[in-house]
UniProtKB/TrEMBL annotation:
Residues 1-24 are annotated as: Disordered. Keywords: Glycosyltransferase, Manganese, Membrane, Metal-binding, Signal-anchor, Transferase, Transmembrane, Transmembrane helix. The keyword Metal-binding applies. An alpha-L-fucosyl-(1->2)-beta-D-galactosyl derivative binds at H191, T203, E259, D282. One of its GO terms (biological process) is carbohydrate metabolic process. This is N-acetyllactosaminide alpha-1,3-galactosyltransferase. The active site is at E259 (nucleophile). It is found in: Membrane. Mn(2+) binds at D169, D171.
Length: 311
């Protein structure tokens, strides 16, 4: 069931552009990045994907190019149970200020409490759609089943309106620009708690019986944010859901649930762009020496109240 607020999404004017043309635009923009401006942090992966940090990009150039190409973005977020009351209003209102400024955005809010979705004042070319989902008894199942729901919504709706998709956890607040420099074919986020640690400290799933099993990897990615062109996000969510269901049939559950499966996916299918921890920072981390701007921060969490008590 889908409810729409503030009109309908706008179909991109140049919707006939091929995947190659969109890819070429992304590549041309990323060629303008200044990889040498941040010598204290890695700015490029071994497979030549950029890692986006403050000062590396010209925000006006990115915004103007994407506006010229009528780029539109879908944002998905799950607000189930007490998470809706605790986080959704702040997430949406802050997104209106900082997420993809100047571009058409459609918010897809997945919730079991549609009547409680806040009536946020949306700007021009901004749309909010509420999609009713089942609330599972275990928060782990809510986390893992979102992959299926996102894939289904991409197929039924998003692919007809938006070129890019970003998927977020709701317990976050935008604090600074999270703009078009983050767009790309396949986008992953460096986990704020792991990006400085050696690989042997990464908490990959080490269970041989799980389809998420990893002996080693490139980076440790945070499932709080992932994105890309809709085709790639659909492939990611389809693959993760398929592997989650395979594990269920074997009575196995990955260590960090959908995040473990996401890390396995990005190990096999390298992302074309990585976002630095600026794009999702935990203010409880003591060492902030690399972080000159926080674009999104983790919200305070009381898991006992959020996950275990009935509504």
């Amino acid at each position: 069931m889908s409810l729409t607020r503030n009109g309908t999404s706008l179909l991109p004017k140049d919707n006939t552009q091929t995947q190659e043309e969109w890819s070429r635009m992304d590549s041309n923009l990323d060629q303008t990045l200044n990889f040498g401006v941040r010598l204290e942090v890695p700015t490029c992966t071994p497979w030549k994907a950029p890692i986006i940090w403050e000062e590396m990009f010209d925000p006006k150039l990115y915004d103007q190019t994407h506006a010229k190409h009528s780029t539109s973005v879908a944002l998905t977020v799950f607000a189930v149970g007490r998470y809706l009351e605790a986080y959704l209003n702040k997430f949406l209102t802050s997104a209106e200020t900082f997420f993809m400024p100047g571009l058409p955005v459609t918010y897809y809010v997945f919730t079991d409490l549609p009547e409680q979705v806040p009536k946020v004042q949306l700007g021009p070319q901004r749309t909010l759609k509420v999609i009713v989902v089942e609330k599972h008894s275990r928060w782990q199942d809510i986390s893992m089943m979102r992959m299926k729901t996102i894939s289904e919504t991409i197929e039924s709706d998003i692919r007809h309106h938006s070129r890019y998709v970003f998927c977020f956890d709701v317990d976050q607040e935008f604090k600074g620009r999270f703009g078009s420099e983050a767009l790309g074919k396949s986008v992953a986020l460096l986990h704020a708690h792991y990006y400085k640690l050696p690989k042997d400290r990464f908490t990959y799933d080490r269970n041989f019986q799980s389809t998420a099993y990893m002996e080693t990897g490139d980076f440790y990615y945070h499932a709080a944010i992932f994105g890309g062109v809709w085709e790639n996000v659909k492939n990611l969510t389809d693959t993760c859901y398929m592997n989650i269901m395979k594990d269920k049939q074997s009575n196995v559950e990955a260590l960090w649930h959908d995040e473990s499966h996401l890390n396995k996916y990005f190990w096999l299918y390298k992302p074309s762009k990585l976002l630095s921890p600026e794009y999702c920072w935990d203010e409880s981390i003591g060492d902030k020496s690399d972080i000159s701007v926080t674009r999104l921060i983790w919200g305070p969490k009381d898991y006992g109240a959020l996950r275990n008590k009935p509504n």
